[in-house]
Amino acid sequence: MLKRINVEQLRVGMFIQKFCSTWDESPFWRTSLLLDNPKDLEKIQASGVEEVWIDISKGLDIAKPAADNIEAEPAVQKIVPPPVLAPRRASFDDEMARAKKICADGKTAVTTMFQEARMGNALNTARAHSLVEEISSSVMRNPDALISLARLKNKDDYTYMHSVAVCALMIALAKKLRLDDKQTRDAGLAGLLHDVGKMMVSQSILDKPGKLTDDEFVAVKEHPVEGHKILSESPDVSEAALDVCLHHHERFDGTGYPHRLVGEQISLFSRMGAVCDVYDAITSNRAYKAGWEPSESLRRMAEWNGHFDPVVFQAFVKCIGIYPTGALVKLKTGRIGVVVEQSESSLLTPKVKVFFSVKSNAYIPPELVDLAKLEGSDKIVGLEDAQKLGLKNVHGMWAGPA
Ligand code: C2E
Ligand code: SIN
Ligand code: FE
Q1: Which residue has the least CA distance to atom 12 on ligand 1?
Q2: How far apart are CA 279 and CA 288, in angstroms?
Q3: Which pLDDT tens digit goes with each residue over 201-216?
Q4: What are residue 34's DSSP bridge partners?
Q5: Average pLDDT in the 183-192 region?
Q6: Rounded distance from Cα 221 to ligand 3 centre (Å)
Q7: Bridge partners, 2 (sequence order)
Q8: Atom 4 of ligand 2 has which residue's CA nearest to it?
Q9: Residue 270 pLDDT > 90, yes or no?
Q10: Same domain, 63 and 100
């Protein structure tokens, strides 16, 4: 049972289901947690969040029911641990090593799978399912590593890496939307296979460096239906994956294709697919366009009224962060650095590797600054543009050598 309480009533042993706050102040990535240490309690109480929902079937109740709480519970409560234990969180650096391998193996697997499809053969869905498992466990250990890494692609392997990237994004988004384990895997598989129909589109169109002619775009628009056909002839493909393949280019306002569905006529999975697909497309270097930075991409997507389901889009923004990994930021002290890792406690206090000072207009010895530990003595004042500042190899700062 859920109760809404003031943060002053919070105490260790309570299970927090949800923070009642605007998302940018929310001090925790995972929105639900068993409050099991006093430091977290202090952090939450200092964060500016005023109220939280607690689940009293999973943790302690408030000591005395509030006067206006008519559903008073008996005084004796026992702590019941949450049913599923989340896998251990890994540090960004540790996960990065594994994520590099998963990306490389994933790209090879998807390339093979999709080329089979191009030759008219059924998909090796067993390999697809095992890949979804690997990607999913990486995202559970640390969502930031694989997601940041899969964004870095070159135009030649775009379609294959895009599949891996959208799979990871769908899993992170499913988690954020609190879908259950099966739905989360379904979402991942859907992301992995959504563009398989592009194998039926001529390579010269996909690789065209410039804008498509109307006829070429008509041909591209066949890919959802073609993909759906391939998937319906392959074994063990969930309804969600079939649906996302067919409907990831529908738009919330009814202007998409192939069926011009509107609003909730589009399944939740396909509304998620639309957001993840476009985000990864526009943050990537493709044959016809260089990618934008993550924060710039989110800003633009927020302006495309009607394209996305606003609720799904908001949840997605929380997955990526306000200062996404790889973003160039300026600190109050005049230092410039790259966001290298998200913080578990707040979207506003990531770890930043500083390497330049605007005060001296010169490079400084690189230093890792953990803004969460600085307690406000230094903080991010804004995003910076690497090109404008003439800074090179910003990606190398957080992704390391390829
Ligand atoms: P894609 O490159 O994977 O892009 C997927 C979707 O992301 C696009 O679907 C669109 O909704 C969004 N998107 C990508 N880039 C931009 C952009 O610069 N601005 C905006 N507003 N949205 C963007 P869409 O448009 O239905 O295109 C489907 C596929 O058609 C693309 O997949 C790509 O393979 C191909 N395509 C589209 N336009 C061009 C083009 O001008 N040149 C070439 N070579 N291919 C194109
Ligand atoms: C869109 O909704 O994707 C089109 C808007 C734009 O290209 O700016
Ligand atoms: Fe597509």
Answers
A1: 278
A2: 16
A3: 999 999 999 999 999 9
A4: 15
A5: 97
A6: 8
A7: 55
A8: 304
A9: yes
A10: no
Among all bound ligands, the one having the nearest atom to the CA of 228 is 3
247 and 349 belong to one structural domain = no
Ligand index nearest the alpha carbon of residue 190: 3
DSSP string, 361-372: TEEEEEEEEEHH
Question: Given the DSSP bridges, would you call strands 15-20 and 51-55 parallel, antiparallel or unpaired?
Answer: antiparallel
- 169 Cα: distance to centroid of ligand 2 (angstroms): 21
Nearest residue to 231 via CA among 185, 194, 188: 194
Evaluate whether residue 133 is within a structural domain.
yes
Of 52-66, 113-127, 274-288, 329-343, give the lowest mean pLDDT range.
Answer: 52-66
* 342 touches 29 (CB < 8 A): yes
- Do residues 114 and 232 share a domain? yes
Our CA angle for 291, 293, 299, nearest 5°, is 110
Listed residues 273, 297, 320: the one ending a domain: 320
Residues 211 and 302 in one domain: yes
**Do 397 and 355 meet the contact criterion of CB atoms below 8 Å apart?**
yes
Kindly state the DSSP code that residue 210 receives in the 8-state scheme: S
User: Sorting pLDDT into bands at 50, 70 and 90, what band is 41?
Assistant: confident
pLDDT at 66 > cutoff 60: no
Given a contact cutoff of 8 angstroms between Cβ atoms, the answer to whether 92 and 340 are in contact is yes
Out of 320, 337, 362, a domain closes at 320
At 337, is the secondary structure helix, strand, or coil? strand
Residue 296 forms part of a structural domain: yes
Residue nearest to atom 6 of ligand 2 (CA): 304
Please identify, by atom number, the ligand 2 atom nearest to the C-alpha of residue 307: 2
Model confidence band, residue 292 (pLDDT cutoffs 50, 70, 90) = very high
Tally the residues of the chain.
402
Q: Would you give the end-to-end CA distance of the chain in angstroms?
A: 48
